[in-house]
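Quick start: load a record and inspect it. Here is BMP family ABC transporter substrate-binding protein:
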Amino acid sequence: MKVTIKKAALGGLAMFGAAVLLAGCAAAPEENGGDEGEARDFLPCMVSDAGGFDDKSFNQLGFEGATRAADELGVELTEVQSDSETDYAPNITSLVDQGCNVIVTVGFALSAATVEAATANPDINFVIIDDAADNDFDGEIDAPNIKPIIFDTAQAAFLAGYAAAAYSKTGVVGTFGGMNFPTVSIFMDGFAQGVEYHNTEKGTAVKVLGWDPAAQDGVFTGGFEANDTARNTAQGLIDQNVDVLLPVGGPIYQSAAAAIREAGREIAMIGVDADFTETDPSVADLMLTSILKGIDVGTYDAVLAAGNDEFDTTPFVGTLENEGVGIAPFHDFESKVPAELQGELDDLKAAIIAGEIEVTSYLAE
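Running the structure step on this input writes:
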């Protein structure tokens, strides 16, 4: 499969050249252990975005993957948490100064700082999660020592949108995000495409609030913090009769969950990046499903490869085909969704992989 980027990216995400992206559709990283018992002079390091390593989402998944690789290599992971965007560059610099051999940066917001540090330190390997590291939009990674780990989550979000439409009793579902970056809006757009496909196939008329596919814009909180703004944003959608809600942006789901519980009626939530039923059992009773990224596997593989002197900067692009993206089981909602739904989702997944159903995104073919 050839992957091309169809629109200019924001916040550091940008177009890959054809040669880069052809390589980007390799199989999902395999879990290969390092040599046992061998002492290594190797220091893996990691810096979070403002969501922190306990965000129950993509920072946490990246941390788990890097930690597992470090454990297998017999070394300690050095990590530093960012509390705001002003911490990004100084935190990366501090890791460079500590002699890190590979530095993993988490999130598109760290793209500019990552590229600057990688350019200034060509002997250090860098891995960036959720960004293409092409800030000048010339179709190439901006430094030869950066490996991007990115995901065509629109494919998985399509399945979640279809499931949301099948589950909805009010005929209204909603979504909102932290900021309108491609790695956020790709969830929202794929979700809306899935709802529309259900409407077309089933003759339903489920509405999607919070995202306008034509305008490629929607409802955003302006940040990724679990705060009153996020809660009020969720409440605004709940007040419009949504009964399925997709919050996209790390910890903002916590505010959405609080608003759902206060609403006093049955509203399902869809998680992003990780299976929230497993990473945050406190919201398990609200979770219809989660849209998954293999962040932990991709990060594990990249750090392990660096520790074994096998670092490869070929971008990893997660898709349904290579199992880099997917959706979680229905868990507590298994008895609440239509009995035929799982079979329909399996068929849809196969059709997307085969190219029979087109799911558009900035990473789409």
